[in-house]
Structure formats: structure tokens, C-alpha cells
Design a protein that fits this description.
Helices cover 40% and strands 19% of the residues. The chain has 1193 residues and is α+β, with helices and mostly antiparallel strands. The two termini are 44 Å apart.
Length: 1193
């Protein structure tokens, strides 16, 4: 968990190789530097402190000097991702003097010298130095010279060492020491106080900037305008704080019960005692007695067996049996000894113990493995508290956009200062007016503009029962161009239906037995189906895996619990007993007891049970699992020669096939079942037959996949099922279109003396013929077929990653079916797709997909279990209809965010241009003028995003970039056109015969003549000694032009098709903006003294007002034409790209383009070796025409 120090000891990696990996730098606080910084805080009135709050690395660099990590009192952490964000942490020194003296540490850890805690104690000071990062403690390992994670037992312990060191529990002194260093066993999420949330929100840079601008406006007497902005800011901050507070309360309630569990712990030399779970430490021994228990920690089962509900982890509320950790004297670490199957010995935090089965001399026992946030549930909560930063370029480009606006604002600042200085205005007035012009450019609401579409989209998704815990990902959904689907429970129905069983006798398959024709006859095959499962009889009913339940129900047998076990022989006191029921075939047996179980695991692809027939002494072992796996454990002479053909005949039709096998066991009376070696007993089996189960497609699957394909969105199947079955489901669902070739890829790891190899083979499409008496039809596709799909299993995928890393991206470009994939491999596959610049969605039922759901850009869980909380999206409707819904809303939200962002940029620039022109004659817009303009902008921003998503997915994605030619040209054109009309208005109004400079408001003359013989207020020369800062014909003209332009720009930017419904469907926006536009036109032509006096406007001739309206109408017509006919014309942009030779820079696009002329791809019916792949690393890849036309604008 630690990292190697650099040569100077100042820098290291924290949590190396984990998701939490960070760079760590050591610093020591220097008194002189700190004193200077405090002085800086005072002299800057807190501004320097605020800067350090925003930039913690500057704080550390200013206050501290670099030093060795061993001597550091402050550390600086830097993320190793592309964002490289900094965090500042204090190193805490913990004294152990009151618990230890200089001699006792060696005695306390006499049997565990490799413990992290022992290595963290400094001598002779007896102190432990640690830091706390994202709820995890890292203690300083003195010999290792690195910060290492504490709060769990070391992975280096072997099975034997865990039993020896911790089997008898810890002493009280050891427990106290571990608790002090590791902290309490609690997942504590404080309900953040409102004042803290408020303080953090107010210190956001944009609210600080807004406070600065409000101060300026108030200093100039703009009280009404500033008050309106203050009210809006308070409402915005209040809503944000309320939302954050509610999230904090929900998360607190989610974990609150975890910290209040009463447990029975075993203390060495003292025995068992009841205590609160918060006092547990790694190494404690838990006594698991009969009662139900929600586990407050991760623990390794040492003795007995447990039945737990792991719905919190897997998303499936299916009872799982946990077996004790073997006491094998093996030098391998305990996790490696059991490979991926080590989870069968671990009781995870948050899971519920339904039943315990003691064995040996006492109750079931478990040793605490991890506590607090180190546990499985703690990790789940941390993933919510500290989500992975979004690498979405829209947010980076928004920052660059704002930087550009700041540059314009600085130019305005200089311009304003020069104008006022030239007119010899006072320094204070010059500075204030220059800063006012600066503040007009950057609207404080600009960053929030990117979230308005998200907020409305989230509400619409909620109505469709799609819930989101990471709203920022909604915009990313608009960019998704590849979706991975789990098969069982996602594309197909959750449950399986029994189709039949194919018995095997004398190495030959018998005809298929259909369960609809009657019960299965008594025999080993029937016994295997009745016993080889993980079902449990709980609370008066049979519970367990749905497939096991269907298989057991097919036998007609019944289950009950029995207390006939013998603890001395390793048989649990209670074991499952199955007996023939009324619907079962006649059997010369009273029933069978299931004595021992070797659980199923995704790595082994099998499970087995040890049974005993009631009233007899004969024992037997029954196995079920993946057909290929089970057959490999059977005697070759018992496996029919037609095994592969028979298997393929069913899997090619989409059936789920399970193989069954049997073996007689000879067990001595004193033989303990706990000492059985799994590899030994699971050998030399007799093959019994195949169980065929039907897994039907959900009704929504085919139309949804068709809709995604028409939208040029790739679909990929990632399943743990058989490869042939997955291919058939892919064909039946339309994921693999009719007529497309499927190429099976099989790779193997290097084995001396043979190098790693990969084989390519075209898969024949086997379909059931309409005639019952005919064999299945086989369609062989022509090799010249242009569209093809790669299919492979998890083993091949892993081998390609290891030995053919340069070939893997080429395969993934056309990879469609990935079968027999473990949960870890699913996550790796999603990551590999992301490396190719795909925006990846993942849809699964949560069972084994949690890692992939978290890894994807948009993970959609169809499960409501607690595990799915870590998934960004959860659908309460258990079908894949949610996928296109989410993509539609994502696209609409993205377009809405762009529209609002662009509108606010233009709004700021319109005001900036108007103010800059008025500054030329030492004027500015009036208080209520600003207020009215802000009202127009506010209504537009709040309602523009209410337009719903278009019901049809367009066959291309919206641009995911703010800095893209269409958007930049749109902004530049709008700025230039507004500059043109405002400049024309400013210049030409001064050339009118009725124009005069004024110093105060004057009412309209009767009849509103078209010309005036003299200047206002009776000055024939139109001059005044003191000019009014607001009232003028220039101001009146620019106000009308700016306000009306803001109205029409809202209509221009509120896009409809192809990603949103037409603008008129947004009734609220259309009505309110029409009212605003009508009001502005009314003010333009009305001769109402109250309005003109309140807005500080001057009466102008009707002809001039008509000119203003004509300019706005022309501006609107030209803008609509430029936006729709040119800038948003996708065909035009594709033609320009083709003309200029501009192509997509995405990695998967480059791979596709590289192979357009390569005739040797895809390879078929031959084998490549690792050496060949290395020589051909620069070889090209084939482009699939099915997705070739999905070009990005």
C-alpha cells in the first residue's frame, strides 16, 4: 500500500497500484514563513487567505519548506490522474506512552512482527505518525519509510498464520492499542452543519466575484439592480445548500445503523463478552451465534459455516453459503491460496447473516479482517463521498472560454480607465467605472449555466423512474457511442425455464427428457439435480439462486432442515435434507442429506456437494457447472464423443446448458469433511448429462437494440454465460444483424516451449429449422461479407491483454460478444474501450456488474439493492428501455447547456458593447434599465432548458465541445452583428436633425414630432455644463437595441430538432419570452411618461423607433439563417471536413481508418503467435461499415 521514496525522501506514492493512488510530498512548517503569511493575511484583508483556500498547494509552498517525509509535519497530496488536484494534510502524532513502555511492544507483537502497527511505532518515543486521507488512515512505516494503510489484517498472512495468530482472539491490551492506531470501527458520515455548507458555497470563486461586482453597483447607487441580484444569489445559494444538506442526511441515514450493532467478541484469557461494534479492531474474534446479524465489519470465517444475504454487494438478494478458511500449512498468502475464490471465506460488512451452522466444539467464529472505511461497505460509501473526477472536456473548455472573456474584460478595464482619465475625472470615479465595465463581461451565473439543462433532465428522468446520484454525468450521456449490456436479467428474463434434460448412459446421450412429459426417473441424474445446489430452507420456504430453484423444482423433491449432523466429523449440526415429494418419481430411498458444499465461483465455473443417503453409509459427490469445465473433471470414457456437437446444438439456439457429474466417495467414520481436498475429491467423475434451460429475451430488448443501432450507437454483450449461448442471444436480439459474420477469437497464454497464440475461426450460424424432423440448419457466411463481429471469452480477453496488447485495440473495434467474463474482466473491458476514446455506457442488473457500472461513463443499474448506490444511474423499470431514454435526455441536456452558456456569453457581451459605447460620452445604462435587461436574461436562462428531448435518437451525436468551429463562429458572428447594430444606432442617432445632448429627463412633446427645433430643456445649442450619466438619445437607442437583441437571441439559441423537441413545444419559454418581447416593443413605441421617467428614457420620433425595430427584425432573420442554414448544417460541415481532409482524432476512428485497404483483416481460420504480433504491431485494422458513417461533427 505504500510507495518507494525518491532519492531525497521528499516524494513518494501513496496507495501505489490502487484506485486511491496519490503522490505525496513532505514539508515542514517554518516559523518565519508562517509569520510572513499571517502578515499578508492582515494586510490583504483576508484576500491572501482566500487565495490559499482555493489553492492549497500555494499555502503549503508559502508556509513550509520541503523535507524528508519522515520529518514532515505537513504533506501535500497530488492526484495521479489527468486533473492532478492538490490536497493539504497535517501529519498527526499519536502518543502510546499511556498504553506501552519501552519493553512491551515486542511482547505484544511477539507473534506478529510483520504487523503494520508494530512497524509504525517509533522507538524510544513510542509514537505513531499518521495522516487521514478520504476517511482512510495511513501510518508511517518506520523500517519501510513509507505511509501505509492501517485498519486491516496484512494480506501476507497465510491461512495457517491467521488461525495461529488470531484464532484465540486478542488480549485487552492488544485491542486497546489497535483501536487507538486504527481508529473506531465506524462508518461515520456527519450531517454537515448548515453554516459550514453555507461558508463553503459562499467562498466559491464566482460568488466572491459576484460579491465584488455587487459592491461596485451599490457604490454607484444601483440599489434596486443590486438588490435583485442579491435576492437571486441568496435563493441560488439557499437551494444549493438545502440540496447538499439533504444528500448529507440521506447518506448519514444509510450508514447510521451500521455503528449501533451489538456483537459478541472473544478476548484472549477472558472469554466472550457483548460490546458495541465500534470497539472492534482487526484481529478480534467474533462469535456468530444463532441470531440474525448485520455485519459491522469484514471478517474471515474461521470455524462453522454461515448463510448470508450479499444483496448489498452483488445486487442479488440470494442466500450465499460461506465456508471456513482452511488451516492448510501453505507458504502462500491466504488470498492467493484460494485465488479469486477467497471471497467464499469472507463475511462482508453490510451483508446480513441469515443463519449460522456451528461445527467443532463451539459456535461459528470469524476474525475481523477490516474495519471502518476499509470494509466493503466503507469502500461503497467512499465511492459516493469521493466520486471519480469527470474527464469531460466541456468543463475544461468552459474554463478556457471564461479565461477568454476575462481577457476581453481586462481590455474593457483598460479602455474605461483611459476614457475617464482622458476626460480628467477623479481617480476614484475612474477606477470604479473601469471595474464596472470589467464586471459586465463575465456573468457570475456563467458556470451555473452548464447545469441548468442537467437539473431539468434529472427531473424528467425521475418521472421515468430513472434516478441519478451523479447529475454531472447526464451531460456525458449525450456523448455515449457504445453501450455494454449484461445478458441474464438485462437482455433476457431474470428467471430460467426448464426445457429438458439430456441423460448420458454408457458414454452416449439419450433422447431429451422434457419435464412437461413427467418427472425425471430415479437415478444419479435425478439425485444430482436434487442435491447439487446452494438452496436453503429458511423461514419455512426454500430460498436461493433462481436457476437452482428451477432445477430443484423440476425433480419434485422437497427440502427440510435436519439436526442429525455430527460436529466431530465436520458435519454441521444442521444440514439440508432433500426427500422425494408427491410429484417426484418413485425412489427406493427416504432421501439424502447434503453434508458439505464446495461453493460456486466465477473463477472455477463449478460447484459440488458431498451427500449421504438417509439410512445408509454410502457417500457421494455431485458436481454441476459449465459443460466444458465439468467434462474436464470426468473420466474421458464416460464423456460421449458427441459432447461438443450436442452442446452446440443447444447453445446455438440460445439455451442455457449446465452439465452434471457424479462420483462415489469412500469416507472413513472418523474422516472430517473440513479436511477434504477439493482438487482430490473433484476428480475421476462420471458424466451424467446436460440440463437445458430456456432464457427468453425481454420484450423490450430487440426494439431498444434496433433503436440504438439506427442511432449509430454500438452495442456490446458482456456476460458470464456460455459463449455459444451469448452469440445466439446476440443474433436473436439483433445485436448481431442477420448476414453478419461472427469470428471466434481464442487466445492462450505462453506455455514452455510454445509462445502465446491466438486463433481465429468463423462461427457458423445454427438455427432450428421449421421442420421438426430435420437437423438444425447451418448457414455458412461468405468470407467476403463486409460486416463482422469478434466474439471471445474472458480467458481469451485476459490472454490478449497480457500477450497481445497491441492487437487488443484492433479486436475491440469490432468486438461484440464477450462471454464467461468475471466481474474484474468486465471492469477491465470497459476501461479498454474508454482508452479507445469511446464514451461507454454500461447496463446491468447489478449482480456481477458493480465494478463495470462504476467504471463506465454512465453506469445504469437495473437493481434497487444497496450495491447499486455506487452506480451513477438506477432504473426501477427492470429493462433496457432506460438506456435510450438516458441518452436522449443526455443529448437534450448537453444542447440546453450549450444554448444557455452561449446566451449568457452573448448577454454579457451585449451589455459590454453598449456600456463601452456609452463610456465614450461618460454615460452608462440606468438602474431600472439594467434590471429589465437582467429580467429578460434570467427568464431566458431558466426556461430555455425546459424543452424536452426529441423522441427519436438522431444517427449522430451533438458536439461535446464548447470550443468547436460551429459554436465559436456562432458566438463571434453574434458579437459582431450586435456590435454592428449598436454602433450604427450610436452613430446615426447623433446625425438626426432632432438629436441634442441632454442633462435630464423631459416628457414627450404632443404629437411626437419627427424633428425638434432645439435641444431639450430649452438649450438651442443642445449643450449642458453638467451632463447626466444616464439620460441621452444614445442611451435610449442602445437600451432598446440591447434589450430587444437579448430577447431575439433567446429564440435564436433555443434549438429544437434533432436533439430536442421544437421550440413551440416549450410552452413556458415561448409564452414568457413572447410576453417579454411584447413588453419591450410596447416600451419602444409607448408614449407613457411614467415608464419613460422610470427607465430614464427620452422620447424619440416614431420613425426612429421603426428603424430600431427594423434593425432587430433584420438581425433576427440573418441570425436564424446563419445559425440554421450554415452553422448548424451538418452536411455542410461534413463537406468542409472532407474538402480540408479533417478527420476525427478519436483513437477508435484512427484504428478504423488504418485498415480500409487491408485485405488480410479480419483473419480467419488460422493461428497467430506472439512473435508474429510483435512484428506486426503497426499493422492495420478493419473498419466495420455498420458504424463507419457515425461521424462526429
Amino acid at each position: 500500500m505504500g510507495g518507494k521514496l525518491s532519492l531525497d525522501g521528499h516524494h513518494a506514492l501513496l496507495g501505489k497500484g490502487t484506485e486511491d493512488e496519490m503522490e505525496i510530498f513532505g514539508y515542514r512548517t517554518q516559523f518565519f514563513r508562517k509569520a510572513l503569511c499571517i502578515a499578508g493575511y492582515l494586510f490583504s484583508c483576508g484576500a491572501l487567505l482566500l487565495v490559499f483556500y482555493w489553492k492549497p498547494e500555494w499555502d503549503v509552498w508559502a508556509n513550509c519548506v520541503p523535507c524528508n517525509l519522515e520529518e514532515a509535519d505537513t504533506v501535500l497530496l497530488r492526484a495521479t490522474d489527468e486533473f492532478q488536484r492538490y490536497k493539504r494534510k497535517k501529519v498527526i502524532s499519536l502518543s502510546l506512552q499511556h498504553l506501552l513502555d519501552s519493553e512491551k511492544p515486542d511482547l505484544l507483537f511477539s507473534e506478529d512482527r510483520d504487523s503494520v502497527i508494530y512497524r509504525a511505532i517509533t522507538r524510544p518515543g513510542l509514537k505513531v505518525r499518521f495522516i487521514q486521507v478520504q476517511k482512510i488512515r495511513y501510518a508511517w512505516d518506520v523500517p519501510g519509510k513509507a505511509f501505509v494503510r492501517v485498519g486491516s489484517l496484512e494480506d501476507s498472512n497465510t491461512c495457517y498464520e491467521i488461525h495461529r495468530k488470531f484464532g484465540d482472539g486478542l488480549t485487552k491490551r492488544q485491542r486497546d492499542l489497535r483501536k487507538l492506531v486504527c481508529g473506531p470501527n465506524a462508518i461515520e458520515i456527519e450531517i454537515r452543519p448548515i453554516w459550514k455548507l453555507l461558508f463553503k458555497e459562499i467562498l466559491n470563486p464566482f460568488y466572491v466575484f459576484q460579491a465584488f461586482t455587487l459592491t461596485l453597483w451599490l457604490s454607484q447607487g444601483y440599489y434596486e439592480f443590486a438588490t435583485a441580484l442579491i435576492i437571486l444569489s441568496i435563493i441560488s445559494i439557499g437551494l444549493t445548500v438545502y440540496d447538499l444538506r439533504q444528500q448529507s442526511v440521506k447518506l448519514h441515514n444509510l450508514v447510521e445503523e451500521h455503528n449501533k450493532v451489538r456483537v459478541t467478541a472473544w478476548t484472549k484469557h477472558e472469554g466472550g463478552h457483548q460490546s458495541e461494534s465500534c470497539h472492534l479492531v482487526p484481529g478480534d474474534v467474533l462469535l456468530l451465534e444463532g441470531q440474525k446479524l448485520s455485519l459491522p465489519c469484514d471478517a474471515i470465517l474461521l470455524d462453522g459455516s454461515c448463510v448470508v444475504n450479499e444483496g448489498m454487494l452483488t445486487g442479488e438478494s440470494v442466500p450465499v453459503t460461506k465456508t471456513p478458511l482452511p488451516q492448510a500449512d501453505n507458504v502462500q498468502p491466504w488470498k492467493k491460496h484460494s485465488l479469486e475464490d477467497h471471497r467464499r471465506h469472507v463475511l462482508f460488512c453490510g451483508t446480513e447473516v441469515i443463519q449460522t451452522r456451528p461445527s467443532g466444539k463451539g459456535p461459528a467464529r470469524a476474525v475481523v479482517l477490516q474495519t471502518g472505511f476499509n470494509t466493503a461497505k466503507g469502500d461503497l460509501v467512499r465511492s459516493i463521498l469521493y466520486p471519480k473526477p469527470l474527464n469531460f472536456r466541456i468543463y475544461k473548455e468552459a474554463f478556457l472560454f471564461i479565461v477568454g472573456l476575462i481577457f476581453v474584460a481586462i481590455v474593457g478595464l483598460i479602455y474605461g480607465a483611459c476614457v475617464y482619465a482622458e476626460n480628467k475625472r477623479p481617480v476614484r470615479e475612474t477606477a470604479v467605472m473601469a471595474l464596472l465595465l470589467l464586471s459586465a463581461v463575465v456573468t457570475p451565473a456563467l458556470p451555473a449555466a452548464l447545469t441548468t439543462g442537467i437539473v431539468y433532465a434529472q427531473k424528467r428522468l425521475k418521472k421515468r423512474k430513472i434516478f441519478c446520484i451523479s447529475p454531472q454525468r447526464i451531460n456525458i450521456c449525450g456523448q455515449i457511442n457504445l453501450v455494454c449490456f449484461d445478458k441474464t436479467g438485462t437482455l433476457t428474463e431474470d428467471g430460467l425455464n426448464l426445457f429438458g434434460v439430456v441423460p448420458c448412459q454408457d458414454a452416449s446421450f439419450l433422447p431429451l427428457h422434457s419435464f412437461s412429459s413427467g418427472p425425471l426417473p430415479w437415478g444419479p441424474l435425478c439425485q444430482a439435480m436434487a442435491t447439487c445446489h446452494s438452496l436453503l430452507f429458511l423461514e419455512g420456504r426454500i430460498q436461493g439462486d433462481p436457476m437452482d430453484l428451477k432445477m430443484f423444482e423440476g425433480t419434485g423433491w422437497e427440502m427440510e432442515e435436519s439436526g442429525s449432523g455430527d460436529p466431530e466429523s465436520g458435519v454441521p449440526k444442521t444440514c439440508s435434507v432433500v426427500k422425494p415429494g408427491p410429484k417426484a418419481s418413485k425412489a427406493p430411498s427416504e432421501g439424502m442429506s447434503i453434508l458439505h458444499q464446495f461453493p460456486f465461483s466465477s473463477s472455477l465455473l463449478r460447484m459440488s456437494v458431498v451427500t449421504k443417503e438417509l439410512g445408509k453409509d454410502n457417500h457421494g459427490l455431485y458436481m454441476k457447472g459449465a459443460p466444458e469445465t465439468v467434462a474436464s473433471f470426468c473420466l474421458p470414457k464416460t464423456v460421449p464423443p458427441s459432447f461438443q456437437a450436442e452442446l452446440k446444438s443447444f447453445t446455438a439456439q440460445g439455451f442455457r446448458v449446465i452439465a452434471l457429474a457424479h462420483k462415489e466417495l469412500s469416507l472413513d467414520a472418523g474422516h472430517s469433511l473440513r479436511d477434504l481436498d477439493r482438487d482430490e475429491v473433484e476428480s475421476g467423475l462420471t458424466f451424467l448429462g446436460l440440463l437445458v434451460m430456456e432464457n427468453r429475451l425481454k420484450g423490450e430488448t430487440r426494439p431498444v437494440l434496433e433503436e440504438l443501432r439506427e442511432a449509430r450507437i454500438r452495442t456490446v454483450m458482456v456476460t458470464g454465460d456460455n459463449l455459444e449461448t451469448a452469440i445466439t442471444v446476440g443474433r436473436n436480439s439483433g445485436m448481431i444483424p442477420s448476414g453478419d459474420r461472427v469470428i471466434l477469437v481464442e487466445a492462450s497464454d505462453p506455455e514452455d516451449p510454445h509462445p502465446a497464440s491466438v486463433t481465429w475461426q468463423t462461427v457458423e450460424d445454427t438455427q432450428p429449422c421449421k421442420e421438426k424432423n430435420q437437423d438444425p440448419c447451418i448457414t455458412i457466411y461468405d468470407k467476403s461479407s463486409s460486416s463482422f463481429h469478434f466474439a471471445m471469452n474472458g480467458k481469451t480477453f485476459q490472454a490478449l491483454q497480457k500477450s497481445f496488447s497491441s492487437l487488443l485495440p484492433k479486436i475491440l473495434v469490432n468486438g461484440t460478444v464477450f462471454a464467461r467474463m468475471s466481474p474484474g474482466q468486465k471492469s477491465s473491458l470497459v476501461e479498454e474501450f474508454q482508452k479507445l476514446d469511446y464514451y461507454v455506457g454500461m447496463c446491468g442488473d447489478g449482480a456481477n456488474d458493480c465494478g463495470a457500472l462504476k467504471m463506465a461513463h454512465a453506469g445504469i443499474s437495473l437493481s434497487e439493492q444497496e450495491a447499486s448506490v455506487a452506480s451513477p444511474f438506477t432504473s426501477q423499470t427492470p429493462n433496457i428501455q432506460c438506456v435510450p431514454e438516458l441518452i436522449r435526455e443526455g443529448r437534450a441536456a448537453l444542447i440546453s447547456s450549450f444554448a444557455v452558456f452561449k446566451y449568457l456569453v452573448l448577454y454579457g457581451m451585449v451589455l459590454f458593447i453598449g456600456c463601452a459605447l456609452l463610456y465614450w460620452q461618460m454615460q452608462i445604462f440606468g438602474n431600472y434599465q439594467f434590471l429589465l435587461q437582467d429580467g429578460v436574461a434570467m427568464v431566458a436562462c431558466l426556461t430555455m432548458s425546459l424543452t424536452h428531448a426529441h423522441p427519436r435518437l438522431a444517427p449522430f451525436r451533438p458536439s461535446g465541445r464548447l470550443i468547436s468551429p460551429p459554436l465559436l463562429l456562432s458566438v463571434v458572428f453574434s458579437i459582431l452583428s450586435n456590435l454592428a447594430i449598436q454602433t450604427c444606432g450610436f452613430v446615426f442617432v447623433r446625425r438626426q436633425a432632432w438629436y441634442a445632448q441632454v442633462r435630464s429627463y423631459s416628457p414627450c412633446s404632443p404629437g411626437n414630432q419627427s424633428s425638434f427645433p432645439f435641444g431639450v430643456n430649452g438649450d438651442p445649442n443642445g449643450t449642458s455644463a453638467i451632463r447626466n450619466m444616464v439620460v441621452s438619445y444614445e442611451n435610449t437607442t442602445l437600451y432598446h437595441l440591447a434589450t430587444l437583441d437579448c430577447c431575439v437571441l433567446a429564440f435564436v439559441f433555443c434549438k429544437g430538432r434533432p436533439f430536442r423537441k421544437p421550440i413551440y413545444s416549450n410552452y413556458i419559454f415561448t409564452c414568457l419570452m413572447s410576453i417579454w418581447l411584447g413588453l419591450c416593443v410596447f416600451i419602444l413605441f409607448a408614449d407613457i411618461e411614467v415608464i419613460y421617467k422610470g427607465l430614464q428614457l427620452l422620447c424619440t420620433p416614431n420613425l426612429w423607433r421603426g428603424y430600431i425595430l427594423i434593425m432587430i427584425v433584420v438581425r433576427f432573420a440573418v441570425s436564424v439563417f446563419v445559425e440554421d442554414a450554415l452553422l448548424e448544417n451538418r452536411r455542410l460541415w461534413l463537406w468542409i471536413k472532407a474538402l480540408l481532409g479533417i478527420r476525427s482524432s478519436s483513437k477508435y476512428r484512427k484504428l478504423q481508418r488504418q485498415v480500409e485497404g487491408e485485405a488480410s483483416w479480419p483473419p480467419t481460420n488460422h493461428r497467430d503467435f506472439a512473435e508474429d504480433a510483435k512484428r506486426n504491431r503497426k499493422s492495420k485494422t478493419y473498419v466495420n461499415p455498420a458504424y463507419e458513417n457515425s461521424k462526429d461533427v
